[in-house]
Amino acid sequence: MIGFHSVEKIGGTSMAATQAVFDNVLIAGRTGRDLYGRIFVVSAYAGMTDLLLEHKKTGAPGVYARFLADDEDASWEDALNEVSAAMRGRNAQIFTRPESRAEADLFVETRIGAMRTCLEDLDRLRGHGHFRLTEPLVTVREMLASLGELHCAHSTALLLRDRGANAVLVDLTGWGESVQPTLDERIESAFVDIDLTTQMPIVTGYAGCDGGMVSRYERGYTEMTFSRLAVVTRAREAIIHKEFHLSSADPRVVGPGKAQKIGRTNYDVADQLANLGMEAIHPRAGRGLRQADIALRVKNTFDREDEGTLIRGDYVSDTPRVEIITGLRSLFALQFFEQDMVGEKGFDAAILECLTRHKAWIVSKSSNANTITHYLAANAATVRRVIADLEKRFTTAAISAQPVAMVAAIGSDINEPGLVTRSMAALAKSGVEVIGLQHQIRNVDVQFIIAPKDFDTAIRALHQALITDCPSLARGRKAA
What we know:
Blueprint: E1 6-10, H1 12-16, H2 18-26, E2 38-42, H3 48-52, H4 63-69, H5 76-94, H6 98-126, H7 134-162, E3 167-170, H8 183-190, E4 200-204, H9 213-217, H10 221-232, E5 237-242, H11 251-254, E6 264-266, H12 267-275, H13 283-291, E7 296-300, E8 309-312, E9 324-337, H14 347-357, E10 361-367, E11 371-377, H15 380-393, E12 398-410, H16 419-429, E13 434-439, E14 445-450, H17 455-468, H18 471-475
Parallel strand pairs: 1-2, 1-5, 2-4, 3-4, 5-7, 6-8
Antiparallel strand pairs: 7-8, 9-11, 9-12, 10-11, 12-14, 13-14
């Protein structure tokens, strides 16, 4: 039976804007019983997980990366001290009541102290040289990741209680437990005694479970917790609060006055966005919601009155239209040419095995009689290793890679006559040369392969031609 409640996730950038989150999401003018019937899953404050693990974009080492490197000049102890200072600094910014700040600081120092003891013990153990720490290091990464979400959830619950809300911290991290249950079991046991009519659960985005959250989902683990929580509790609706609207293009590229809120779309479109790195939701998290027939709403944390964009499994636009222009400005086109490929099997499987082994993300692929091209979201070093491995196995093949960019026109139904022709004309008019084109039969997306230097120009040109200059289609954009 579908519940009366919502499950809502607040991202780290939004959580860092504490006052806005309270004014627009957590409290948002509600009083009494209206405060309840909502479960909140919180991410770590912006930048905290980068300090704990490594920077998501630059790769700058955090506590985990420094512990792994075992470098005396960049010690993990100093990195852990930086985390402690950052957490206490955040507490100083958000708490006005001295007693609550002291409680929050004590909580931080207790958990940081336990983490420090654990790392010191492991450091001494590996100093003997006879111990392999492969499995313990995986556990260390999980433990460090959990600290960020736990700090945020604890502080948020404390702040809510200071404001009169009956908030309860739901700690899913499983800290100190030797045996970890499945994710669903963890959630079920945590919510046995919670009354959603009188309590507001603030849930850690990290959940300690069999197999490890970071190991299985990388930085998408918070959305997996959010998704399974909605499914297990049979939520009425799942809501993600982000620092922006799910828009027809990046406002920083096309201009804030031109980007339009999408309003409605489906999980198929959400999957395409995730494949291009513009996640509305992690694809595996979206799968669970879709299978449970739970709608997902994406809202702007800073736009309290707007209903956001509603994502459903069964939605298809009333008229064929492009909903969003997005892409990746940095890809490698890996081309594998083998004259003797025609009629032979096994080449594709071998290439996929190599790409999987080197953890190269495949965004798209194409092939003809003797050439297979994979468009990869990977760094140059990874691509070089892939080429070297393939050349050893296929000595007569010609294997090369070149940097490219990809821009895609995406929608729940883009079966619009002349769409590709108009797109090509708009790109040509803007001086953008199309290197490759991918158009799937399902009419959900069209991908244009271009030079990286033309990325922004291509986004603007396609957005103008396919969205801004289509007023009839723009009027069809429904508010959720």
